[in-house]
Amino acid sequence: MDTGLLIALLNPTIALALGAAFLVLWFYQRHRPYLAVLAASYCLSAPGFLLQYFTLPVGIVTTKLISNICFTIAACCLSSAIVARYGRRVPYIGIGIMTGGGLATFAWFMFVQPDLTWRVLGMNFGFGALSLLVAAELRTVRNNGPVEKILFVLSLLSGLNFIARTLIVVIAHGPFPSYDGFYGSSYWTTALLSHALLSLLIALCLFTAAALDVLKALKAETHTDPLSGLLNRRGFEERAAFLLDQCGRAGFPVALVLADLDHFKALNDQHGHEAGDRVIADFAAKLRFATGTRGAAGRIGGEEFAVLLPLSDLAAARLFAEAIRTFYSAGAVDGLPPGTRVTASFGVAARTGTEGLAPLMRRADEALYKAKRTGRDSVRLSYERPETAFVPEAVSVG
């Protein structure tokens, strides 16, 4: 087997292997459709490269057109999958204009005014513009991690590869009058090798991103209560400790609200555990809606909940608790008999100084106990300040 054939088979082999790998990933993670799109992208690029080297019985013109259509669809799939992976809106119009323009240029210089050099320039400029579009989308992704930054750089390099490399080689060694000798030219050799390298690097980044998605999902599962959808005790304590540290550094106020469903055991005994689960889920949904993204809400016990509110003093936290209490006690829970009223009691404490989570929770829990002891369905506040260590003064004896 000659060297030219080995090089020609390099990209299809890599593309099929990567496509199969992404397909396997998608099979186990069906909730991430971008993996299936990536698999389609790499699988489609394989016949594109093969048809550059081998000619179908329909003739060389039709074969080259089919090859470039495969490349175009593969590029559209790859770019849209990368953008979708990061939660960005896929710019279908921009993708269509750039790839469609390149394919239209190819068709014009294939059928209307045959010119191989302009076909090469048209397709490469279209793919280069698409790579730069992906780089622009990645540039606006918030909280870019190392994987996103590497993908951004690779997208820029890919754009330069399609545009700058093509121009340099065409100027230095072009134009190309026909396909005779084209696949032994410096343009084709550099195109195959650069594409193989960039494909591998981009795929490795995307594999790493998929692995990080799995790790993040596993971490979320270990920190989330499955019934309520809120943070569990461990997750709440970690998130609350982080927020307390952040607010402490910035000098912002923080308040803690503890809530406990009233007469929950009696409700469970009377209506069954399934009804009790619905009550917990309903209260958690209201708590999550009220908290939004500014604070941390968690289920820290059977029917006990906690909300840490950054940028809130005691008065603001009290208003928050009163709003939840009023809203919840006035509503009905699906699955319970009409007229069944479910209420909750609340304890509120505001952070003083550099008070840690444990003493803050203790004070809020004492306020919650007062609310339970004095009739329930109420909000009680903790005005107590954390204890300070007593240091006796030196006494002189003379």
TrEMBL record:
- List the PROSITE patterns: GGDEF (PS50887)
Q: What is its EC number?
A: 2.7.7.65
Supply the enzyme class, top level: transferase
Record-given protein name: diguanylate cyclase
Which organism does this record belong to?
A: Mesorhizobium dulcispinae
Per the record, a Pfam family? GGDEF
Q: Which reaction does it catalyse?
A: 2 GTP = 3',3'-c-di-GMP + 2 diphosphate
Transmembrane domains' residue ranges = 6-27, 34-53, 65-83, 90-111, 117-138, 150-172, 192-212
GO MF, any single term? diguanylate cyclase activity
